[in-house]
Amino acid sequence: MGGVGGDWARYWRAGRRPLEAMHAHFERHVYHRHSHDTYSFGVTETGAQAFTCRGAAHTSAAGMVMAFNPDDPHDGHAADALGFTYRIVHIGPELVTEALADATGSRSPLPLFAAPLVADAAAAGALRAFHRALLDPAATALRRDELLAGTVAHLVRAAATQAPPDPPMARGTSAATAARARRFLEDHLLDDPTAEELARATGGSRFAVYRAFVARYGLPPSDYQRLLRLRRARTLIADGVPIGEAAAATGFADQSHLTRWFVRCFGLTPGAYREAACS
């Protein structure tokens, strides 16, 4: 638990499984536009959180569920001076697949949540119960797995489709070009490529690559490169690598540079993440 002013956050992570949870209250904190490589499901408890996602502005009031697909870029801040309190879980796609199989008895395609806001009391209740169990040291692993399956099933029934449509692409852009650019950034995590080098690697003009990338991933390549570095740094920190070493290993100038962006995108410091309850 920690924070500045009226802000506080409590974090939990599940060791080697792609499952994390945060309970937080924010009045001053402003999330920089970012995305996760997981599904992220949040439920607002008090107040209201304003955010932009998929080109539109939204407000999550008490009792509403936020549903973000992997790589869904979004930001967020308090809608008024009173702030907001919310619970959020980050669930890896492989765990969503397992949970759906547990709930339905068969393998299903990964769901797509077409809208980032879900008004469904049953889904919100299931998410709250699951979140509380994750942060409860007395909860058993079996109970948590049961609630995971139930929560995913509730959310899918309430708001998901089974076949993700092709992402909207501006005229003259290409999903393949965007995917090649992403692979290049992943393969050259510590490099500092120019726009021209990225264009050569993907076979398009600088403008075409930029437009295709933003249309597909919702962020410019430079922002996505920093996000990839943050995700890698988070993994290293969870594995016990000292924060300064993690910063150096992922292309940040120093520990303070990593810390600033970690807070802006994830809502807590690398140190708080490292010390998060883990089971």
From TrEMBL:
The keyword NAD does not apply. Residues 179-276 form the HTH araC/xylS-type domain. Pfam families: AraC_binding (PF02311), HTH_18 (PF12833). Keywords: Activator, DNA-binding, Transcription, Transcription regulation. GO terms for molecular function: DNA-binding transcription factor activity; sequence-specific DNA binding. Gene3D superfamilies: Homeodomain-like. It comes from the Bacteria. The keyword Magnesium does not apply. PROSITE patterns: HTH_ARAC_FAMILY_1, HTH_ARAC_FAMILY_2. This is AraC-type DNA-binding protein. It comes from Nonomuraea wenchangensis.
